[in-house]
Amino acid sequence: MITNIQRYGIHDGGGIRTVVFFKGCPLRCKWCHNPETQSFKPQTAVYPERCAGCGACKAVCGKTQDECGGCGRCWDVCVYGAREGAGRGISPEELANLIAKDMTFYTYSEGGATLSGGEPMAQDTAFLCELLARLRNMGIDAAIDTCGAVPWERFEAALPFAPVFLYDFKTLDPALHKAFTGHDNALILDNLKRLCEAGANVKLRVPVIGGVNDVDEQRRMAEYAGNLPLSEVALLPYHNTGSHKWRRFGMAAPDCEFCTPSKERMDEITGIWEKQGFNSVSIGG
Q: How many CB atoms lie within 10 A of CB 59?
């Protein structure tokens, strides 16, 4: 199940990319900017300011704008865009063919597809492997953006298709990790180590959240990761561009306030990682 396909992306991997956002994630990060990808079930975003009171939504599902429960039957009948859906089923063949439409851009820019979310590794393993196999056979580079909080067997199944893993590294402190994501990081760290031992192409992605992991924690994280066979890390400064989504999807927003680290702080953090031997440290992407 996917929520969106973003074409012509220049982040989340090299070159021009098509980013597929899967629905469903084992974590509940309080700074999440795609909260509609957390649940594995379809959801409806409600825009009351667009509603004209025509009653088309109630005619198909029996519920008014204010009573919407996310069944999805109203998504295509609201001509005013007062209801938008997140979550539709798709087959590996259909998804691979949609991704392949931009083959020219991948070839020109050395780009490809990035499977994101949500958590792509939490999707059906057979689906994921078939999709990766189809992309490989089409000559399309695949990258998997993962939080790592899934059983190792899922990574093991995907490894033969040799994708790049864009691996989230949020914090080293297990208590801090659980407090802000709802899940400790023991499995995540173990999977990271095993991927490295298996010779996978792993690139770290570190969300830098002001007030959470932007001070001494970055030093501890860099020291830990410096002992692994990794060379690239992308530092991702916190932003709140998705904060409006919580209300739109009828979800309770986290009772936390985060801030975006300053440029000076990001430069300092970049230096911390470079001192640990990382020869490719980028901000963003």
A: 11
